[in-house]
Amino acid sequence: MLLRLALPLAVLAVLWHLFDGPEALRHLAGAQPGWLAAALGLLSVQIVASALRWRLTAARLGQPLTRAHAVREYYLATLANMALPGGILGDAGRALRARAGVGIAASAQAVVIERLAGQVALFALLMAALVAAPLPWPGTALWVAAVAAVFLAALIGLRRGPGPARRFGAALRLAWLSDGVWRRQLGLSVLILGCNIGAFAACAAAVGATVPPGAALVLIPLTLAAMLVPVSVGGWGLREGAAAALWPLAGGSAEGGIAASMAFGLLALAASLPGALVPVVPARAQAAVTARSGRARRP
Predict the structure, then answer these.
(1) Residue ranges per domain, the chain?
(2) Cα–Cα distance, 208 to 247 (Å, whole number)
(3) For the whole prediction, is pTM greater than 0.85?
(4) What is the distance between the alpha carbons of residues 166 and 121, in angstroms, rounded to a whole number?
(5) What is the pLDDT of residues 228-277, one digit of tens each?
(6) From CA 26, how far away is CA 197, in angstroms rounded?
(7) Judging by beta carbons within 10 Å of its beta carbon (0-12, 13-18, 19+), is residue 97 exposed, middle or buried?
(8) 235 vs 52: CA distance, rounded Å
(9) CA-CA distances (angstroms) from residue 173 to 63, 155, 168, 183?
(10) 206 and 263 in contact (C-beta within 8 Å)?
């Protein structure tokens, strides 16, 4: 845990010396409030939309949740993910707190499948953007082919792999595809991804680090993907390093990319702060919430 706490500080320190750290801070200090407010609003919308996607996924797997419960728990989990090392402890807590009535295995499965939907959407957009408007670096086609091969292997494993893999594949189909639910899953995933990308683009505009739209559809997903590596706190350090490396490829400056990334990180944390108002629900109260949600209509 100490390593995960030290890593973002070390990476930021290296970036400060490799690039013009004071210039990045000048970009950040001169950020336009209007763009920052837009980014904060988009990040808040994506938290609520993510909670609704979790509720939909959980209901498909036999775990009904009320909207209020899903939104409240998602805010708390997002705050924990942003503030604690690894970026997954909030999701683990969300699964643990929602386990009453279904058990921890079923509760965790709903959380994993919901988060997986976001990652699949992110990489699908990235691959489409790379094919449509590849950035000027060698090996783009190779990267696209490699990711496509990984997805294909995963699909084969979920259909023909060992028993646990096949059961997980069946749960994925139930949560994402059966009875036309894919339309709602796709709509929520597009909304969530659009809010995240739009928020980062708004942060870039706020600090004067905009890039062409075609390039942004590659650079921003790649920068956000760096946050998925669970070795940091809230993606700090890794996200800024990715932005510093990628922004010059589209004619921007590394300092501008770092400033945009820092603004995004600060606003993502700010958007999750309502989670601090969520009390720690005792087990008895949690069971009552789950029982009431079981009588609620399925989303």
Answers:
(1) 24-294
(2) 12
(3) yes
(4) 22
(5) 888 888 899 999 999 999 999 888 999 999 999 999 999 999 999 999 98
(6) 23
(7) buried
(8) 24
(9) 16, 11, 9, 13
(10) yes
